[in-house]
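Example 9 (inverse folding). The structure is encoded as follows.
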């Protein structure tokens, strides 16, 4: 019974942590709903008065962006802002032929009167954080807008964000990401679904109550003074944006989130690209948990509730590890439940995963309904999308759990960029992209084995116990089977 007890304790702990996270999401939903009733009354710069228009630097950190570089520069050149108060820095760490083609395009833009500089470093020390820090040293702007290579801000973007800095306490203005290729595939649909929830429920839910949020690495503006005061960019984690965000807010800088300002961007269309992005985000989250936990808990400037939300925010990525633990142990738990009849009441009490799923379902539906409207047709589409998302998210749990564990134990790794594709329509193809990795990760093999493992879990539902089976966990095992199967086969076909 010792082994069974250990399994029950670990399983129960993971379930409780998931349940706590679900409750925090529910609290953010209430915050979000109450925030919709408030009007934005903060002070703003008067752009009809030329003297109030501040100097802005746009930073474009890029690395080997053959497929989107021309599109990026053309788009940025259309930004509607006084040219005598705008500087553009192309922070180019590229190591391929794009350095020359980018330099040529920048030269043409200069001739049009645009103040644009091409900054190439001798080495990639600090990766993106290092490039941003080096550019900041010579930046002319009082405010610094940052865009990754696949983002396409509208021409009036600066005029909708910069005015909010009239409030001297605001250090960052962050905008919501849009998705130019949302409907390209199942993969892009579920990524958009997850990001939409983050950029509505989480960002608004936290920001509306003064809890910590994060600059999302792109599509936002920093006050230069805020960056310097918070200790500048640091490259010791894979999510330098989250790191600097927390250091700035611990220094009492306010963040402003603009839900209604959308910045279109391209979602990864190949699972290998999504995997590299997910790995970086989740490992970086765990690294920042190690780096920031005691600073958040020890701060005397923030409330207990803000500390709680901050800790759970930093633990976001660790939820994948808990989901993986619950999934793997659910099959032995199925046998334990039917072997030890006296434990059955415990299993009814421990139905946290079902309750957590219902909470997530309600929270995500509230966000989906706000965007697409209610009605039976939209609800049915939502149900299909939610369970597709939930299944594939669980299918990523092994990959993301490895990233999380590496982050928690302090294993360092290189910043791996997410390949860009310039995918705009369903007719565009990703095949032939020179930046895709050709090797198959060992993790993919284990994902295939987990697919088989959860097929066994479904089979077990028919044979356990002496009452004709136990199908309570069958839907869960089916979702895990489909999720790991999707990730496994897609990884093989896209050369993950």
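The amino acid assigned to each position is listed next.
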């Amino acid at each position: 019974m010792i082994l069974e007890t250990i399994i029950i304790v670990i399983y129960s702990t993971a379930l409780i942590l998931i349940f706590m996270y679900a409750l925090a999401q529910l609290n953010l939903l209430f915050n979000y709903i109450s925030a919709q009733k408030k009007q934005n009354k903060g002070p703003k710069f008067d752009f009809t008065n030329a003297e109030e228009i501040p100097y802005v630097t746009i930073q474009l950190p890029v690395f080997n962006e053959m497929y989107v570089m021309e599109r990026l520069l053309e788009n940025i050149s259309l930004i509607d802002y006084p040219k005598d108060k705008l500087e553009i820095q192309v922070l180019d760490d590229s190591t391929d032929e794009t350095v020359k083609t980018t330099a040529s395009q920048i030269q043409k833009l200069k001739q049009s009167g645009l103040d644009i500089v091409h900054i190439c470093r001798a080495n990639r020390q600090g990766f993106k954080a290092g490039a941003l820090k080096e550019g900041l040293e010579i930046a002319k702007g009082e405010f610094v807008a940052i865009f990754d290579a696949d983002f396409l801000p509208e021409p009036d973007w600066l005029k909708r964000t910069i005015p909010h800095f009239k409030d001297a306490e605001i250090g960052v203005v962050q905008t919501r990401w849009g998705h130019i290729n949302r409907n390209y595939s199942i993969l892009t649909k579920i990524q958009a679904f997850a990001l939409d929830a983050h950029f509505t429920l989480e960002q608004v839910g936290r920001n509306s109550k003064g809890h910590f949020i994060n600059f999302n690495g792109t599509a936002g503006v920093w006050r230069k003074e805020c960056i310097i005061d918070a200790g500048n960019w640091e490259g010791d984690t894979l999510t330098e944006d989250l790191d600097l965000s927390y250091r700035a807010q611990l220094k009492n800088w306010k963040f402003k989130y603009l839900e209604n300002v959308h910045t279109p961007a391209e979602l990864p269309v190949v699972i290998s690209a999504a995997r590299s992005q997910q790995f970086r985000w989740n490992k970086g989250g765990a690294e920042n948990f190690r780096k920031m936990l005691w600073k958040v808990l020890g701060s005397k400037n923030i409330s207990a509730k803000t500390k709680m939300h901050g800790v759970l925010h930093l633990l976001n990525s660790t939820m994948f590890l808990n989901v993986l633990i619950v999934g793997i142990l659910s099959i032995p738990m199925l046998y334990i439940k039917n072997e030890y009849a006296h434990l059955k009441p415990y299993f009814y009490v421990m139905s946290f995963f079902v309750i957590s799923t219902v909470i997530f379902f309600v929270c995500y539906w509230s966000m989906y309904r706000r965007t697409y409207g209610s009605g039976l047709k939209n609800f049915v589409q939502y149900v299909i999308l939610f369970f597709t998302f939930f299944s594939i998210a669980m299918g990523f749990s092994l990959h993301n759990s490895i990233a999380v564990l590496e982050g928690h134990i302090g294993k360092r790794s290189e910043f791996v960029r997410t390949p860009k594709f310039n995918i705009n329509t369903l007719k565009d193809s990703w095949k032939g992209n020179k930046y895709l990795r050709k090797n198959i990760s060992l993790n993919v093999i284990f994902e295939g084995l987990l697919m088989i493992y959860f097929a066994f879990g479904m089979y077990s539902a028919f044979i356990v116990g002496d009452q004709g089976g136990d199908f309570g966990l069958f839907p869960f095992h089916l979702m895990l089977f489909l999720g790991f199967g999707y990730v496994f086969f897609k990884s093989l076909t896209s050369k993950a």
